[in-house]
Write a structure and sequence with these properties.
Length: about 280
């Protein structure tokens, strides 16, 4: 069994017109990640591929199109985890790396550390020959307009490969108008993402809330009830502590879950036996 689930952010759309193209991109990310898995690629390869599709699409709050901070700049966070080795790569507060998920992966695979921030992370990116861009590259007209929006979202993917390995990957511009230097849940293993041999998960929503619940790891607490019930319980707990977010999750049997207490969560998934990806809100 190979399978992938992706999300393009929880919250609400800024306009009705945004909804269909966002769902289309979720389906595209799921389909392209699935193709990687069918061609024998690893869960890491597939999750990174899917997240890069979102990072390169200006409609989403990751990579190009990210929200601006209170100084009018873009600061990016990303994280990745391999469920078999429990290796982590995470990055925060970067301003010039075109695809932050590639930097998270490079940290996981080629660095002695788990988590790099700011200038040190960008120096490492240069050594890894990753593409560097001016900060203006990330700033789209649409996101400038939404500078004062209260909506926070993120993108992510969880994949299961033919060897039964699970990987989770996440990327975000954080919340709109955030303080310079603010770090959300996304690059924090356990909160924004988590993977082990049983399941993987990625969160989206208000990072300050997600961290209080350690939301992605929280699924572990009731995993014996199945991935759907465990994911529902994690979001139920978040609601009890007045948090707002969504979660996607996938287990080693290829079962998917997507649960949120926001107005909507853009998502898509594809697994063996399906003719094409399913996408929705
Ligand atoms: N969930 C993304 C953030 O709060 O930064």
């Amino acid at each position: 069994m190979v399978a992938i689930i992706v999300h393009g952010g929880a919250g609400k759309a800024n306009s009705k017109e945004e909804i269909p193209p966002r769902i289309e991109t979720c389906k595209k990310a799921a389909a392209e990640g699935y193709k990687v898995l069918k061609d024998g690629g690893s869960a890491i390869d597939a999750a990174v591929k899917a997240v890069m599709i979102f990072e390169n699409d200006p409609l989403f709050n990751a990579g190009i199109g990210s929200y601006l901070n209170e100084k009018g700049e873009v600061e990016l966070d990303a994280g990745i985890m391999d469920g078999k080795s429990l290796k982590i790569g995470a990055v925060s507060g970067i301003k010039h790396v075109k695809n932050p998920i590639l930097l998270a992966r490079a940290i996981m695979e080629n660095s002695k550390h788990n988590f790099l921030i700011g200038e040190g992370a960008e120096e490492f990116a240069i050594k890894q020959n990753l593409e560097i861009v001016p900060n203006d590259y990330f700033i789209t007209k649409q996101k400038k307009k939404n500078f004062l929006s209260k909506f926070g979202d993120t993108v992510g993917a969880v994949a299961l490969d033919k060897n039964g390995r699970i990987a989770s990957a996440v990327s975000t511009g954080g919340t709109p108008n955030k303080a310079e230097g603010r770090v959300g849940d996304s690059p924090l293993a356990g909160s924004g993402f988590y993977a082990n041999e049983t399941y993987g998960a990625v969160a989206t929503g208000i990072g300050e809330d997600i961290m209080r619940a350690v939301l992605s790891f929280r699924i572990s607490l009731e995993i014996e009830k199945g991935i759907e019930k465990a994911t529902e319980s994690a979001i139920k707990y978040l609601t009890e502590i007045n948090g707002k977010a969504g979660l996607i999750a996938l287990n080693s049997d290829g079962n998917v879950a997507f649960v949120y207490n926001t107005e909507m969560m853009f998502h898509g998934y594809m697994k063996e036996g399906m003719e094409g990806p399913i996408g929705g809100i």
